[in-house]
């Protein structure tokens, strides 16, 4: 089984003073290169980010008629290797003989809203500007939730930002993948949970994309099989999104039995309901890719990391932290930077390192190329980066019950699989 130790050590960098960290790669060995590579294989025009580097591309053909991306939310590269070793991913272990497996990096922050926006624009986070689960939106004067498109202080108000003048169709200022592919004569289809068909995030991503909603895993596979067994005059990009690993990981932890069994059933469904029923004449030039938006780390609930228990720290901030529990951004009151650092050093010695906004932007932590015009407003004055993989910060006004998290730079969060095989 490939462990890619040399590949990881030569292609990826770590952050000083943060053991087992991996910085995002925006130059051909990260998630930002997935869609540009799909476009290259299908004959589309270039995207803002580069395609994969030669060490990956040389294992593929120059052209395919169809590319299917199976996006498993929160499936880390190290987690996939563990599932193979433990017997929960026998299908994928056997596919190694005919396929190719590489580790690539997620983006920063390593979280769904940011990573999926990268996948649906072909642009780095610093370019599309969706930075984290929660984000300060200066023009609206509020912290917004980038998944539910509602103010973070609201409950059960999905899409409610429209009342404040938020237009998801215009927010990015970038052309989504479906529109870019359409100009090159490529058909784009997305197979996703039916309940998010009209969500703000879907509206932001899926212009010029045929949406297929499913209500159960079996429905997803049968829909995919029907699409692949239909003749098409156009090259096709087909994206199928499955979120159960992420949901279970948050509740039980990365390596919980329920997570492993769920992925085992997912893999069996792909094999039984799709691959064994494909029309070979229609799919001889079909490429399947398994990947993820991010990985995860097990973070047992620890009330000492709840901001509500640290009023002194809270009083140093202009507003609650933003971004992610594993990569909190702090908007600090004037002259309080040193006090914030000193508090962390006193209460959580050795568990975090800090980075100022300008340093993060200068080193390209959120991507390369031209920054989104509002990027500096969306990144806090200080960024806390956990050194301890179990460290996080919890600030929502609801129970702290999550046993797995993501968003940071630990390799279990940052490394995701790129597993490709032909039909």
Features:
423 residues; alpha/beta; Alkaline Phosphatase, subunit A; Gyrase A, domain 2; seven-stranded mixed beta sheet; four-stranded antiparallel beta sheet; 17 helices; globular
Spans with pLDDT under 50 lasting ≥5 residues? none
State the CATH topology of the largest domain: Alkaline Phosphatase, subunit A
Portion of residues within helices: 25-40%
Q: What number of domains?
A: 2
Distance between the termini: 21 Å
How many H/I helical runs? Answer: 17
Backbone structural class: alpha/beta
User: How many β-strand runs?
Assistant: 16
- In spatial order, strands of the major sheet run 2-16-9-1-8-6-7
Mean pLDDT: 95
Task: Please tell me what the overall shape is.
Answer: globular
Describe the structure.
The protein has 423 residues and is α/β, with parallel strands linked by helices. The chain folds into two domains: 5-298 and 411-422, 3-Layer(aba) Sandwich (Alkaline Phosphatase, subunit A); 303-405, Gyrase A, domain 2 (2-Layer Sandwich), CATH 3.30.1360. 30% of the residues lie in helices and 19% in strands. It has 17 helices and 16 strands. The chain has helices spanning 5-11, 34-42, 54-57, 77-85, 90-95, 112-119, 125-128, 177-183, 200-205, 217-228, 244-252, 257-274, 311-314, 337-347, 357-362, 375-378, 411-414, and strands at 66-72, 100-105, 134-137, 142-145, 150-151, 186-193, 210-214, 235-242, 286-291, 297-298, 322-324, 327-330, 352-356, 382-386, 404-405, 415-422. The strands form four sheets. It has a seven-stranded mixed beta sheet with strand order 2-16-9-1-8-6-7, sandwiched between helices. It has a four-stranded antiparallel beta sheet with strand order 11-12-14-13.
């Amino acid at each position: 089984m490939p462990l890619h130790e040399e590949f990881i050590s030569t292609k990826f960098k770590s952050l000083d003073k943060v053991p087992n960290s991996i910085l995002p790669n925006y130059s051909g060995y990260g998630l930002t290169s997935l869609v540009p590579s799909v476009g290259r294989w299908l004959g589309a025009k270039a995207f803002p980010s580069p395609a994969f580097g030669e060490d990956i591309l040389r294992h593929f053909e120059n052209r395919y008629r169809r590319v299917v991306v199976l996006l498993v939310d929160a499936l880390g590269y190290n987690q996939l290797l563990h599932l193979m070793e433990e017997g929960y991913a026998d299908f994928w272990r056997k596919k190694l003989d005919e396929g190719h497996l590489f580790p690539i990096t997620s983006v920063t922050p390593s979280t769904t809203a940011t990573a999926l926006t990268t996948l649906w624009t072909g642009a780095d986070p610093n370019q599309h500007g969706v930075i984290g689960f929660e984000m300060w939106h200066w023009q609206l004067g509020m912290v917004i939730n980038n998944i539910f498109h509602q103010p973070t202080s609201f409950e059960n108000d999905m899409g409610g930002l429209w009342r404040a003048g938020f237009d998801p169709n215009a927010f990015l200022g970038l052309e989504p993948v479906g529109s870019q592919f359409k100009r090159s004569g490529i058909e784009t289809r997305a197979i996703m949970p039916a309940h998010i068909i009209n969500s703000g995030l879907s509206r932001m991503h899926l212009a010029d994309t045929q949406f297929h909603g499913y209500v159960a895993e079996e429905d997803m596979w049968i829909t995919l099989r029907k699409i692949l067994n239909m003749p098409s005059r156009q090259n096709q990009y087909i994206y199928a999104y499955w979120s159960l690993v992420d949901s279970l990981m948050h509740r039980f932890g990365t390596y919980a039995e329920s997570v492993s069994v769920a992925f085992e059933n997912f893999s069996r469904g792909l094999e039984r309901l799709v691959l064994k029923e494909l029309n070979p004449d229609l799919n001889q030039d079909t490429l399947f890719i398994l990947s993820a938006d991010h990985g995860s780390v097990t973070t047992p609930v620890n009330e000492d990391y709840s901001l509500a228990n640290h009023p002194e720290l809270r009083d140093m901030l202009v507003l609650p932290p933003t971004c992610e529990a594993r990569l909190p951004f702090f908007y600090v009151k004037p002259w309080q930077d040193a006090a914030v650092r000193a508090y962390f050093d006193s209460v959580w010695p050795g568990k975090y390192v800090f980075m100022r906004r300008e340093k993060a932007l200068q080193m390209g932590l959120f991507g390369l190329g031209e920054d989104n015009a509002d990027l500096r407003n969306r990144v806090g004055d200080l960024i806390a980066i956990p050194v301890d993989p179990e460290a996080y910060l919890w600030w929502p006004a609801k129970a702290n019950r999550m046993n797995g998290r993501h968003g940071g730079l630990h390799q279990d969060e940052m490394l995701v699989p790129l597993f490709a095989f032909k039909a």
